[in-house]
Amino acid sequence: MKKLSIGMLLLLLIPTTLHALEWAYPFVVLDGRVYEVTDEQVNQSLIGQSIGEVTTQADDRTGKYYGNGSNYYPVGTKYFKVEGVDISEAIAVEEQGTYMKAEFVQRVPLHWRNIVYYLTPLLFLTGLIITYRIREKVKKKYQNSLSI
């Protein structure tokens, strides 16, 4: 009886399901804006300058993403401005020599890595200022001690 109970308990610990997320549509993220990639191709004559690229992949299990990510396109896929269309409305995504239209859907939910990206230079500058002030105080105390 004891062996059977332990065996049943161990069977409950074995994971039996696989969790995977199925995305509703392919998307790309550019500077905090999510764009849904449509089936509509953009004429090459309307393609403007490069405005970014995919830098991270979205997590298929949790659905989380940050930075200029995508759930479909690999890292390095380029984004382009479409001439005559504001970037806040639509962009073009390069896909094997063709350009697919991506329409703005929503702003990106806040993610801690996005905050770190913007705070790092600020923290570095603050550290430099504090170090400089401490150095000046120590220097002034040293000069005062020499003059006595």
TrEMBL record:
Record keywords: Membrane, Signal, Transmembrane, Transmembrane helix
Annotated TM spans: 115-134
Protein name, per record: Uncharacterized protein
Signal sequence coordinates: 1-20
